[in-house]
Amino acid sequence: MTTPEHILLLAGTQEARQLAGRIAAEFPQLRLTASFAGAVRDLPDLGVPTRVGGFGGVDGLVRFLRSESINLIIDATHPFAAQMSRNAALAAETLSIPVIRLERPAWQAGPRDLWQSVASMNEAANALAPGARAFLAIGRKEIQAFTKRSDIYGLARMIEPPSPPLPASWDLILTRPPHSADEEAELFRARHITHVVTKNSGGERSYAKIEAARHLQLPVIMIERPKLPEVNSVPAIMELLDKTREFLPLS
Ligand code: NAP
């Protein structure tokens, strides 16, 4: 009996959730293992064998890939989870196994959008006008770039609380983003928000804030994506399944 091909799915996004089920259904003869960073507590059940926590850098990942006889890595992490994507590309190169990255398209500004594109969290923090009341759709590990601005008010929304805590005069909303632009606009109005700061995550899941900012004609400080190593990239799940068939033709 031959050993089945084994895919590692680097998860953490809505697409990864959908992918786990699709891969399991379309390639029942393959082994599939999903992996989460474990940064949030309410991890979804992907319905496939799943491990949680870092691998221990590139070396740790190489060890894991070897010991699990992984033949293909599917990188469906968040566009800003750059360290994981870089580690995956390097480890795969070391072992000469393929990586397919699911890279959802970035958001593009329309004619009514008032965006300022920046390259980093620090640049975004520096771009805020003195006295700004900023809505910060920024994760717990990144918020410190903004808290050094003692002259602004911040309304931060994230999933897990930051450490150290936010300045006393700021507000924190611990939740995932709502789907409705009306809800976002209501929040921005109620807190007298003057600027929206966000990563260019792409996708529909957190687009409501962009629509709300457009509706209220609020300036958006858009943090553009980090540069990642070149690997096989696809924009959506269908293309990813096709590419998987290309790399594992006997499956
Ligand atoms: P990161 O900087 O790329 O990853 C940091 C470390 O976490 C990695 O080096 C790896 O540890 C571990 N890790 C990340 N994803 C993993 C996975 N799927 N399986 C196993 N280990 C994983 O990413 P981050 O610190 O998690 O997040 C950076 C940005 O991405 C933030 O803006 C965050 O809001 C956004 N984001 C990330 C995720 C996610 O699932 N990672 C989800 C939504 C949004 P080792 O080096 O020890 O292997």
Structure characterization notes:
The structure is a single chain. This protein has helices at 14-26, 57-67, 82-95, 121-127, 144-147, 181-190, 208-216, 237-247, and strands spanning 6-10, 31-36, 50-52, 72-75, 99-102, 115-118, 133-137, 153-158, 171-174, 195-199, 220-223, 232-234. With 251 residues, the chain is α/β, with parallel strands linked by helices. The strands form two sheets. Strands 3-2-1-4-5-12 form a six-stranded parallel sheet, with helices on both faces. The chain has a six-stranded parallel sheet with strand order 6-11-10-7-8-9.
In short:
This protein is α/β, with parallel strands linked by helices. The protein has 8 helices and 12 strands.
List the uncertain runs. none
Bound compounds: NADP nicotinamide-adenine-dinucleotide phosphate
* Strand order across the largest sheet: 3-2-1-4-5-12
Number of helices: 8
Percent range for helical residues?
25-40%
Mean pLDDT: 96
Which secondary-structure class do the elements indicate? alpha/beta
Q: N-to-C terminal Cα separation, in Å? A: 14 Å
Shape: elongated
Largest sheet features: 6 strands, parallel
> Order of helices and strands, N to C?
EHEEHEHEEHEHEEHEHEEH
Radius of gyration: 20 Å
- The total of beta strands comes to 12
The percentage of residues in β strands lies in: 15-25%
